[in-house]
Structures are given as structure tokens and as C-alpha cells.
What we know:
Order of helices and strands: EEHEEEEHEEEEEE
Number of domains: 1
Distance between the termini: 35 Å
Structural class: mainly beta
Shape: globular
Largest sheet: 8 strands, mixed
Number of strands: 12
Amino acid sequence: MHLTITPGNGPSLDLEFLMPVLIESLLKTDFNANNGSPIHPINLDQYLKNRPDTIFPIDRNITIEATLEGRPESKIEYGEVKNVSKNSKGYMKSLDWEKYFHLSNQTNSAPNGSLYVLPENEKLLKLCTVDYSTEDNLFISYGAVLSFVIEGCRYYGSIDPIAKISSSE
């Protein structure tokens, strides 16, 4: 199973999971009888074969796509975007997020300041940036909550690389 994140015309980030290790770990660990949930997913970052080691920039006027491939019963449940900038003045509202992203009926700004994105379908999540003109750099943490079936049981897990939105050329 792998998740490909394509930030517009830039290079793709291909996140491949170490499925044998993940499956063995999930089957051996009780997780207190918790398979994760859409709200409290299991962190899957430790099961990535190729963890990103750099923060990559997200440009203006692009569509960021996350595509899930591999296991037929796997799904993208939703995406979450958080402002993790040190100079953040608190949580972001819809008006703040729409300075950077095109908001639609697939997006929702939550009371905790996160931006939630519903997938286009079970395997594809899209989020479009706008022609932002702010002088501030915005560091975001974005994640995808995935679900997959192992031995008849559905598990929920998340991955969360970090990206930078910058107005500098």
C-alpha cells in the first residue's frame, strides 16, 4: 500500500508502507482492543519505507493530490491541514484558510483551527491552493487518515508529513 502526494507540477512524494511489518505489528499488538478510529487513528509514520526528510514547498495555484494505491479495501477517509507556524496568532478560521486554499463543499474549517478535506472518492483527495500574496510563510502539517482491512478487521491510521507555503520566489 502506498500514498502518492503530488503538489502541482512539482515532484511527487511517494510514501510506501512496510506492509509486512505493519501487519505483524497490528496483529501482535492489542492496542487495548483499539484498531484506531477516524477520530483517533493509529500513527503510521513509523511504518513508512521512505520517510520524507525535508519540508517541501507548496506553490500558488496548484492542485495537491493524494492517491492511495495497493490494497483494494483501503480508503482515504479524510485529510487534515494544521497551521504549525511558530508565529501563528492562534487558530485559523475559514477566512484565514481561504487566503491559501480554495475552499469548497469538500473542505471544512473546524473549531480547533484545522482545515478538514473530504476525498473525491475512496482513493483520491484533492486540495487547491490560490494565488496567495501574503508575505508570511506558513508552515502546515497535513495528514491523511486512511483505513484498510487486515484479516477481516478494519484499521484506521494516519500519516502526517510537513509542508511550507511561502510567498518567496
